[in-house]
Amino acid sequence: MQKVRKVVIAGGGTAGWITAAALSRMLGPLLDITLVESDDIGTVGVGEATIPTHRTFHHLLGIDEREFMRATKATFKLGIAFENWGGIGDTYIHSFGQVGKSSWMGEFYNIWLAAREKGIGEDLDAYCFELQAAKHNKFYTDEKFNINYAYHLDASLYAKFLRAFSEEKGVKRVEGLIGGVEQDGETGFITALKLKSGDRIEGDFFVDCTGFRGLLIEQTLKSGFEDWAHWLPTDSALAVQTRSVGPALPYTRSIAHQSGWQWRIPLQHRVGNGLVFCSQYMQPDAAEEILRNNIEGELLGEPRLIRYKTGRRRKVWNKNCVALGLSSGFLEPLESTSIHLIQIGASRLVQQFPFDGVSEAIANHYNEQSLRELERIRDFIILHYKVTERDDSAFWRDRRDMDVPDSLAQRLDVFRENGLAYQATDDLFRVDSWLQVMMGQRMRPKGYHHMGHMITEDQMRRALGGLSSGIANTVAKMPTHQDFIERYCAIEAEA
Ligand code: FAD
């Protein structure tokens, strides 16, 4: 087997630079890393909301939070507000927090369900700290104060930030258009990228971060694509940025419309907006009208149409090539999971790096792990559509009535019949996430665990009252999100 030392990353979007940052920070002295990107092609230019694992990744890389936030004009994110999803006029927040205090025997909501039957307690929201902070536009963090959060960031500034980080750690950047890919005649392994300039970039191992094109993984290696459009049929997005008109919210907004949904991602300097829709039910001009009618603030450009296919690459590791980012497949950005998948994929590559040569066994192992993880996230996204009660358009009726993967159908049955929500092996999202979405979209179980019946009504009243008032008091003392960011990002600028 050929030893692996020279790594070539094709593409310099979020995926390319995350990969470069991870490999150079973790394995830098052992590898020779080159990244090729083309200014002519550019990047997809979206992908600005994250989940809390982003912080873990930055921690591994040793990235300073304030420096990152200033460089990428980032804001804090406590969750996503889903508007018009369960029914028109509904709003619920899927926060990154835990709902109540659970025990090994069962989740808190079982006690809450028992309490509500007796007319005790408040809405379930009242028992989740991050959710309440989001609802009141509050934010605070320091080393001692435990709050679970992620970020909204400017994607192009983030790529720039990671580029500086990676170049400082020895990554070589080549600007140029890849016009061809050379392969070994016998093994089919990739041996070099041929640039339009005539240059050749040789490597032992290649990472395909060329976006939807999948220049290496698909156009060259023909790895195949499993289409998931029958479950997640949106295939288009219109994206546009606007000037901020008020304080930045500490959450993403996801507003459901007739044949899709709209995002609003607040940054320090602007707001990212977009409408995700399904071309089978809506044409781009109608989508653009909806988007324009539902944004605030001056447009900083014209809406840009992005087409995509939902599904996964059958092999994300094929021969001596791993695909990360959009080249590896795509799930719509409803729960902001794509950047996480790049980070976890890059971290896994660091852990499983084939220094002594690529084997089919290691590739199979990587592919199996990636698939299991993606299927769980896919199910979580489908959940939002499946449990809608909307009946106002063919798009929503079809989503409500569609068949879902068996893994999700079983989970829904268990919750509906017995009130059991759970985090399965390989689930990225915790039980609190599944619960917030199911309950937020009006699902109510027929039964539940009777742990709540083991305490008296008085004990129940005191326990629930203490929990919600404790949360409310803490939230009341926190600064607003906007005030906190301004202060937080200013500190080191002065230092
Ligand atoms: P790209 O940004 O497309 O980069 C591809 C790179 O390859 C570029 O540098 C390009 O120049 C280079 N390249 C391509 N072909 C060649 C060639 N022939 N020669 C040289 N270079 C080449 N993710 C989230 O986590 N949160 C979100 O909120 C979110 N929102 C999204 C909204 C939409 C509408 C879409 C479509 C995606 C969203 N994503 C989101 C996903 C996220 O945008 C991507 O995962 C992320 O930007 C990574 O993209 P990428 O680097 O794989 O591809």
From TrEMBL:
Catalytic residues in the record: 77
Natural source organism: Hyphomonas pacifica
Keyword Oxidoreductase (UniProt): no
Molecular function GO terms recorded: monooxygenase activity; nucleotide binding
Pfam family membership, one: Trp_halogenase
Residues the entry annotates as binding FAD: 12-15, 326, 339
Residues that coordinate or bind L-tryptophan: 335
UniProt keyword list: FAD, Flavoprotein, Nucleotide-binding
Top-rank taxon, per record: Bacteria
Name of protein: Uncharacterized protein
UniProt entry tagged with the keyword Methyltransferase: no
Residues bound to 7-chloro-L-tryptophan: 77
